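To close the chapter, one final illustration. This time we ask the reader to focus less on the individual chains and more on the assembly as a whole: which components sit near each other, and how the overall shape emerges from the parts.
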Amino acid sequence: MPLPWLGQTRWLRFGLYPDFKKAGLELFRTTTFRLTAHFAAAFAFLALFLFAFIYWQTAGVETRRMEYELEHDAAAIALESKSDLSEVVRLAVASRSHRIDYLALFSANGTLISGNLDRLSRDLPADGVAHRIEATSPGEDNLRHDVVLMVCRLLVDGRFLVIGRSLDSVDNLRSVVLHALGLGLAPAVLLALAAGVALSRQALEQVKAVRLTAERIVQGHLSERLPSRGRGDEFDRLADSMNYMLDEIERLLEETKNVTDNIAHDLRTPLTRVRSRLERARQTAQTHAELQEMVDRAIVALDQTLRIITALLRIGQIERGVRRPSFQAVDLQTVVGEIGDLFEPVAEEKEIEFTVRTEKVSLIPGDRDLLSELLANLVENALKFTPCGGRVRLTLETEAGSVAVRVIDNGPGIAPEEREAVLRRFYRSDKSRHIEGCGLGLSLVEAIAKLHAFRLHIGDAQPGCIFSLICMPERSQDS
Amino acid sequence: MAAILAAVSTEAMATEPRPRVLLIEDDLETANEIVGDLGERGYQLVHEANGQEGLIKARQKEFALLIIDRMLPGLDGLSILQTLRNEGIHVPVLVLSALDDVDDRVRGLKAGGDDYLGKPFAFMELAARVEALLRRPLKSRETILRVGPLELDLIERKVRRGERVIELLPREFKLLEYLMRRPGQVVTRVMLLDDVWNYRFLAATNLVDVHIGKLRRKIDGPDELPMIQSVRGAGFLLGPPD
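The assembled structure is written out below.
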């Protein structure tokens, strides 16, 4: 007694007992366990059905065999000489042949002449065919009631010969089958249940790991990831998908946080400038013209702030895909030509060799205004970063079934590790920090490319940078 | 600068009666600023803060121009616009909106607006748009446009200033044509980008200036009086040399 009591106290003390109980209940609630229980029940039912079928078939065959033997024996005995018959019956009863349990000879009026039956049953027709019938016979201590197979034959001299055989052997068969069923079924069901418990426990452990990780993530540990055991099973795949989702969420959160910080910073800088300019204007301006000059400069700084806000709103708008319904078939050749035309003087001013090469390409489903904005941003970007005397090329061509637009410069290029970062909002590489801009142009480019499902790729032009935009042409309506 | 714009406006006003402009805008501060600014530029402003009242006023057909805000109590700006257009009132309308978005712009123009300006805007921009709307470009059948000594032949695609023949690239020709159809009128950078290049977004700050600079070097020779002037904070203006 003291031991279990101690044990229980210890469990209680560590708070394990309620957990254990809860865990136990939880186990029975798991899907795996329920499935296993169903499977075990189905298995048991099938086994029962199978055994019943075997018994039914075997018993049937056995009974028919016995009927045949009995009818045959009755005929054989009836052929014995008439005088000897009562003696044969007596001897046979005495010798207790294993094939015949009951044997009797009755007179024509139904009185027993010889044998181990007390009376001739009225239910038994004298047709020489085996019938299933309830018989009573004088046993050792009292009358035996028994279901037996019996054959009654009317002999030539008017007497009746009755022989019968107990169906005990068929009953034995049934008990053997039931016994086998008991021996086989119980362990099988137990095994199925045990397997179910084991599998459920394993599954539960995985689920528990997921739950615990999720709880930790909720508590703010965003870098937590679900355990993957490298087996490639459903749980691993689920964990992989969830981890991918978590990566993406973490990245987005990080980006949002950065963007928020950057917005605050990028807006504060020009606003601070405006404030100090206005303050200085108020204190130092001597003439109206001076005041106007200072206010004008403040307005320029405010415009810059407004441009940043507008650009951010536009990126947000494009990313939400608000404009997709306005897609139309766009001829990129025209758009590229227009953008080339628009920027050529800028390149000239900077003494940059600017070439535009286009060819006729398939129509692209898209938003014309956004596409021209995208191209303008790429070209503007290239012109901005290419030093005076450099070269910028804008090309449009068909390439393996898709349409490729490229902006190639021979400027400083973008380092491979920075190529993803430049698409982020407000990202400025160290090289570009001295160049004017709000760090949103390429984010806008990416947002527009994404909206159109174009592939945007930044490569190395050795030296310089290649921005490739791969667009899928519009499929004809009937294809 | 503003002085030039004011001068141009007053000059125009001197010959014509002061144009009446109806402003339907619910934000009182913005409305006051607009009334003040356009008033100084020689327009006669009538302000209405409610959409329903605004529509009633607009129906009186005594205004040369309507400036309608999108978001209004009573009846929204686009509904007013549509109602007026359905009733066959074709007075020029400038739509104002805080929703500075291209889709909105398109919706505003589709509803029958003649121009669209997103808030916040510079008053210079507003003034230029108002003027542009009141003085719609010359749609004369003339094939030769003339401003002072400058002559642009639309058929021959030739430009001359006095006796001097000026060689222009097609894009420069297009730009000059736009300016010559609006002589003495301030055109803003956004208007040029939008109307000349079909470009509807924020552009590099000096993009238009570069184009104008190129054109100016060809139009205004070193010993000639300038015809293309920059209007600080607003845009550019082409007029006969002073």
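The interface with chain B takes residues 296, 299, 303, 306-307, 310-311, 313-314, 317, 322-323, 326, 338, 341-346, 348-349, 369, 372-373, 376, 380, 384 of chain A (CB under 8 Å). The radius of gyration of chain A is 50 Å. With these observations in hand, you are ready for the problems at the end of the chapter.
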